[in-house]
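re: the backbone from monday

yeah here it is again, tokenized this time
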């Protein structure tokens, strides 16, 4: 006798939930279809809905049919595939890491794929698209493995974002170095790196679709294990789930999805972050979507809607000719930056200061010896910077040049080299002092102008002027940089001030604002003429190339002001770096004191960016190293950090000019290569 389970009543919660999931899926399918149709009708050619319908039914004019079949449909199909792949990859990564900010962007998957493809371009090896996808997959998977091993699966959101952002910066710096060193081999790679879904035919979509489908099938096969991981590692172990193997499998499959998207359209930013975020409120109302087997396809539909919607929005708001040049990834990056900032406002941050650093107490003799050693190192690297380069000089040549009796060839070399060394020294000192002030005021040892978006705002203001004015002066560039830095600093510190500059909120807002400035800078570079684009890229790499003595005047003035303010108020710096209660008990108003120090830090950072371009991590490394050498008192930290910052940037500039001479790399690229491992080391140390 066969026993049949009774059917669920029509009005039962199970049936209602299934109906809700079906309704959500159907609505998203309809939304994606509408966006795809709108996307197909947009472009430079006058091909509307009726022409599209005729082309699909074989009744269109030959010209209209070729436009639709060769360009419009492949672009929409690429947007659909890229969005779905990134949305599902983000959902899988967030589920397996139990971290709402895990995504191909925050895990440096896109940056790893970008570097791998850049190295492939430099070698001159021409591979089929499918093989290129394998190269991108290897690079993205390696980057994700590094970030996850450093941040820890299931760790806090900030640790993962910091590790991913630092590694992304380092890998991107390497790739930008390749762009500058091999301009012919990497021609078009920068535009591709911004994420464009424009296609020339269906070949790319046809080849990448099986790759994405294979990765999706693998994720669906381990869906039950992923659901078990959501209960916690111990519960999953109790259910017989191999936790470590499952996580490795899911990260690998997610990297494969991302690699397919990157190979087809370049790194389309933040789709893998936003699509799962949109899924979460839906899952709270429709419970079946919590299960990965149902939630994963819905996340893919949301990702497709984001990419197609961004493309439709872009083409609806700018002219058709401009829309062709602007990558869709710029729009998605701006949307993702807004999401990060919004996410930061919802983060609970109970601790406003980090645990005190365990630093040794340094005596006066040891402190003076440290200063003497740093001064000697600074003098040595300054002399080396003046003497070494394409043409090697002697000290006698420098003496003759200072007297005005040098031969013309020596005068020409020193007239161009000395201003570069001076700009590097002043910019390094200013960035170090700026980072010291920011870390003291926010009581956040991982805060620095680059990570908090202040340097990005300064770069945006300066690039806007450089690409729009024919020959802007040094004071004009410094003013534009300060205006951009002031706007971003006001946004970052204003949004993070609620709750006392908490670690999570400050970092997330800073990373979001920094991403927005990067997207806007990319937009300016893509839209400008090739000469200005090359000039802007060189400048953004932190290069001192072409600097003159007047270019150093703004940062010199800001540095003198900053040193005077910080030295005169060094006791206040010590107090505000402790807590809010102690300064108030001693009669100090923390609010105005913080505002004054932050304004000084913004001025220092902006003028440093104007003098030497975007240079990262100096404001992080110099204060950390200074506190490790001389303790926490700012009377000692300030001069030590300034000397360290000047030495670091001057050394980076010297290495960039000499290691691969006659080719050159910007000091910003060199400091990123030095600073990324150090920053990741700090994350590991704080985790321990």
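seq for it, each position gets an aa:
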């Amino acid at each position: 006798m066969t026993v049949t389970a009774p059917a669920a009543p029509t009005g039962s919660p199970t049936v209602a939930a299934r109906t809700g999931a079906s309704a959500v899926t159907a609505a998203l399918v309809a939304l994606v279809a509408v966006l795809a149709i709108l996307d197909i009708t947009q472009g430079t050619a006058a091909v509307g809905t009726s022409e599209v319908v005729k082309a699909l039914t074989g009744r269109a004019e030959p010209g209209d049919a070729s436009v639709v079949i060769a360009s419009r449909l492949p672009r929409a199909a690429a947007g659909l595939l890229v969005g779905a792949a990134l949305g599902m990859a983000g959902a899988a990564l967030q589920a397996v890491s139990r971290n709402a900010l895990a995504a191909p962007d925050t895990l440096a998957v896109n940056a790893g794929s970008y570097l791998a493809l850049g190295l492939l371009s430099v070698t001159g090896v021409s591979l089929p698209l499918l093989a290129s996808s394998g190269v991108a997959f290897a690079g993205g998977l390696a980057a994700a493995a590094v970030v996850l091993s450093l941040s820890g699966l299931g760790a806090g959101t900030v640790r993962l974002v910091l590790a991913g952002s630092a590694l992304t910066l380092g890998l991107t710096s390497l790739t930008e170095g390749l762009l500058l060193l091999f301009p012919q081999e990497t021609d078009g790679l920068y535009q591709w790196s911004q994420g464009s879904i424009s296609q020339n035919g269906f070949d790319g979509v046809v080849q990448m679709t099986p790759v994405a489908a294979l990765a999706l099938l693998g994720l669906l096969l381990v869906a039950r294990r992923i659901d078990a991981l959501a209960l916690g590692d111990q519960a999953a172990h109790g259910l017989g789930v191999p936790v470590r193997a499952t996580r490795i499998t899911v990260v690998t499959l997610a990297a494969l999805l991302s690699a397919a998207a990157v190979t087809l359209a370049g790194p389309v930013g933040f789709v893998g972050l936003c699509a799962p975020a949109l899924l979460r409120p839906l899952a709270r109302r429709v419970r079946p979507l919590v299960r990965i087997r149902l939630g994963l396809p819905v996340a893919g539909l949301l990702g497709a809607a984001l990419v197609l919607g961004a493309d439709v929005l872009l083409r609806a708001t700018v002219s058709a000719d401009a829309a062709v040049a602007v990558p869709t990834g710029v729009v998605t990056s701006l949307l993702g930056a807004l999401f990060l900032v919004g996410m930061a406002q919802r983060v609970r941050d109970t601790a406003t200061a980090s645990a005190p650093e365990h630093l040794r107490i340094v005596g006066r003799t040891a402190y003076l010896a440290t200063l003497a050693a740093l001064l000697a190192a600074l003098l040595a690297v300054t002399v080396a910077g003046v003497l070494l380069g394409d043409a090697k000089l002697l000290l006698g040549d420098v003496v003759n040049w200072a007297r005005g009796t040098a031969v013309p060839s020596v005068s020409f070399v020193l007239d161009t080299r000395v201003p570069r060394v001076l700009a590097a020294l002043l910019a390094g000192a200013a960035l170090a002092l700026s980072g010291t002030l920011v870390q003291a005021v926010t009581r956040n040892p991982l805060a620095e102008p680059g990570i908090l978006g202040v340097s990005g705002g300064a770069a945006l203001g300066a690039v806007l002027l450089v690409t729009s004015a024919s020959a802007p002066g040094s004071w004009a560039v410094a003013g534009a940089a300060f205006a951009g830095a002031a706007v971003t600093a006001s946004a970052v510190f204003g949004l993070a001030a609620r709750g006392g500059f908490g670690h999570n909120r400050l970092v997330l807002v800073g990373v979001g604002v920094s991403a927005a400035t990067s997207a806007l800078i990319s937009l300016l570079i893509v839209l400008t003429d090739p000469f200005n684009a090359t000039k802007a890229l060189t400048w953004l790499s932190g290069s001192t190339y072409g600097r003159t003595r007047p270019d150093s005047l703004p940062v010199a003035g800001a540095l003198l002001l900053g040193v005077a303010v910080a030295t005169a108020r060094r006791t206040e710096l010590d107090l505000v770096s402790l807590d809010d209660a102690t300064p108030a008990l001693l009669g100090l108003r923390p609010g105005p004191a913080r505002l004054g120090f932050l304004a000084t830090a913004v001025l220092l950072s902006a003028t440093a960016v104007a003098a030497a371009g975007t240079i990262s991590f100096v404001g992080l490394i110099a204060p950390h190293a200074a506190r490790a050498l001389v303790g926490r008192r700012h009377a000692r930290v300030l001069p030590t950090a300034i000397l360290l910052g000047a030495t670091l940037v001057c050394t980076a500039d010297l290495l960039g000019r000499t290691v691969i001479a006659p080719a050159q790399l910007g000091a910003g690229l060199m400091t990123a290569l030095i600073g990324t491992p150090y920053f990741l080391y700090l994350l590991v140390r704080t985790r321990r």
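The chain has a mean pLDDT of 80. The chain is about 75% helix and 0% strand.
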